[in-house]
Specification:
With 351 residues, the chain is of the alpha/beta class. The chain has one domain: NAD(P)-binding Rossmann-like Domain (Rossmann fold, 3-Layer(aba) Sandwich). Helices cover 36% and strands 11% of the residues. It has helices at 27-30, 49-60, 72-79, 95-107, 135-150, 152-157, 190-212, 238-243, 264-267, 269-276, 299-304, 310-316, 328-342; strands at residues 40-43, 64-69, 85-89, 114-117, 161-166, 217-223, 286-289, 292-293. It starts with 26 loop residues before the first helix and ends in a 9-residue tail after the last helix.
């Protein structure tokens, strides 16, 4: 007798599983005893901050790693002390560049076991790409959407692959505003744009997992924690970071994992846990933080935050994931919106 499997029924609930790791865990601790020999990983943004630490840990575990980079010279300098890392040209705001990178990888006929969509920008002034798309959405989500769907055949070929999308607690700032993704009819806010792009990362993970699970591909979204040493802070004023308790009076990062103030090594840990942990076998489509699956933000906290600005509400709710970011209807709508914005059917659409 044959039965039909409902992909929605395959989704993992947003509930911690007791991983044994936590907010203070480091990339090195998460990868102890892990052998990734024979596995291939692509890490966008893998030449600075959390991405660089991720590459270092994957290489230490034996994986072959490819780092796409817009600035090849800078990437080469950053990765020189690791060794054995391939670097390829890629600009996440340039669709032709994304296609060229993906095509070159597919021509190599190698399977792709890990795709870590780590690169991103945060809270920059209003900028648009050559298509008129708002830059944070274009870089943080749409470029990675195109890269992932273009590399889909190699993920299928791996016969067991994982996609990890770097999101953020910043998704609390905004849902995806489908009626005006590109801020054409509303005032631009750097933080609302960032929040929208980070919500998109989570929704993309949810739908990619739904489509990919039958082919052995699982997807996860990750909040790494607040890493004040990251290059992401380049658009922020040091005075604001000090006032917010992220930097001390000397401008050094304040580390307190219990409050999500993390080192780079701690910030990379959840990415790596989602990428390699056997605890997540047969799981996917979830938002993770502190090396575990996060809980939904309780209704009581949502009610309490109802009268506050989006930014203030996010600061007052320390952990968890917003319901709108793990909504299946939103995830399917984002997929279609992303396809429409790229003006082409994504390879994954037939999945």
């Amino acid at each position: 007798m044959f039965t039909t499997v409902d992909p929605l029924a395959m989704q993992t609930p947003q509930a911690p599983i007791g991983s044994g790791f936590g907010a203070a865990s480091t990339a090195k601790e998460v990868t102890v005893g892990v052998d990734l020999s024979g596995k291939t990983a692509i890490v966008t943004g893998g030449y600075s901050g959390i991405g660089l630490e991720t590459v270092r840990a994957l290489r230490s575990a034996g994986a072959s790693v490819i780092v796409p980079a817009r600035d090849l010279a800078r990437a080469g300098r950053a990765l020189a002390d690791i060794g054995g890392v391939e670097i390829g040209q890629l600009d996440l705001m340039a669709p032709d560049s994304i296609e060229a990178f993906a095509d070159e990888y597919l021509r190599s006929a190698r399977p792709l076991h890990l795709l870590i969509n780590n690169a991103g920008i945060m809270a920059n002034p209003l900028t648009r790409d050559s298509r008129g798309f708002e830059s944070q959405f274009a870089t943080n989500h749409l470029g990675h959407f195109q890269l992932t769907t273009s590399l889909w055949p190699a993920l299928v070929q791996a016969n067991g692959a994982r996609i990890v999308n770097l999101s953020s607690r910043g998704h609390f700032f905004s849902p995806v505003v489908f009626e005006d993704v590109n801020f054409e009819h509303r005032p631009y806010s750097p933080w609302l744009a960032y929040g929208q792009s980070k919500t998109a990362n989570i929704l993309f993970s949810l739908e990619a997992d739904r489509r990919g699970a039958p082919r052995g591909i699982r997807a996860f979204a990750v909040h790494p924690g607040t890493v004040s040493d990251s290059h992401l802070k380049r658009y922020l004023k040091q005075a604001d970071l000090k006032a917010g308790g992220f930097l001390d009076h000397e401008g050094k990062a304040i580390l307190d994992p219990s409050r999500n103030r993390k080192s780079i090594a701690q910030g990379a840990a959840t990415t790596l846990w989602c990428a390699i942990s056997r605890q997540l076998d047969q799981m996917g489509g979830v938002y993770c933080e502190n090396c575990d699956i996060a809980e939904l933000v309780p209704e009581s906290l949502l009610t309490q935050a109802a009268g506050e600005s989006a930014t203030l509400a996010a600061l007052n709710i320390a952990t968890g994931v917003m319901p709108y970011a793990v909504d299946h209807a939103n995830a399917r709508r984002l997929w279609k919106t992303s396809e429409d914005m790229l003006s082409a059917a994504a390879p994954l659409a037939a999945g």
